[in-house]
Design brief:
The protein is an alpha/beta fold and 171 residues long. The protein has a single domain, classed as NAD(P)-binding Rossmann-like Domain (Rossmann fold, 3-Layer(aba) Sandwich), CATH 3.40.50. It has 6 helices and 8 strands; from the N terminus they run E-H-E-H-E-H-E-H-E-H-E-E-H-E. It has an 8-stranded mixed β-sheet with strand order 3-2-1-4-5-6-7-8, with helices on both faces.
Length: 171
């Protein structure tokens, strides 16, 4: 089985995530979206993503996994714009570091999908897609906090993603 991935926000974290996920044998494609057109084109030209979407809504169309890698205060807005377009099996991850605030501001509450805080403990001095690094998260802790309790096999796929990143996952 292969999976379609959408990454909303192609700064340092989103682009570095895309670099590593592009090596995952179970990845069928990575669609990216960013508010900055130059960032979008640069990521496409460098092969960081397979295609660019014109909006977050188009980015998530048909995606099995959605990673929201935007500034924290934007995450609930993005979620509210995309939630009704998600496939029943879509898993949503946000890379924000302020867990309770994000969970408190998700409207509607993501009860039908698995929604997780997905916080890799990695980063860099410089920001933006031009600073993207392969293996940025290698050997680093990855904190995964679900909005609702995990169901069967959901932890397994998250562990596979963490393995692809070279991260040590903590639930």
């Amino acid at each position: 089985m292969t999976y379609s991935i959408a990454i909303i926000g192609l700064g340092l974290m989103g682009s570095s995530l895309a670099c590593d996920l592009s090596q995952w044998a179970k990845k069928s494609s990575i669609t990216g979206y960013d508010t900055d057109g130059e960032t979008q084109q640069w990521c496409l030209q460098k092969g960081i993503v397979d295609r660019i979407a014109e909006s977050p809504q188009l980015a998530v169309k048909g995606a099995d996994f959605v990673f929201i890698a935007t500034p924290v205060r934007v995450i609930p807005k993005i979620y509210s714009e995309i939630h009704s377009l998600l496939l029943p099996q879509t898993i949503i991850f946000d890379l924000g570091s302020t867990r309770q605030w994000i969970f408190d501001h998700l409207v509607p509450a993501p009860n039908n999908h698995l929604y997780c805080g997905f916080h890799p403990m990695g980063g860099g001095v410089n920001s933006g897609a031009h600073s993207a690094q392969k293996q940025l998260f290698k050997g680093r802790p990855l904190l995964v906090t679900p909005f609702r309790p995990f169901r069967d096999s959901e932890m397994n796929i998250i562990e596979e993603i963490a393995h692809c990143l070279g991260s040590r996952v903590f639930f």
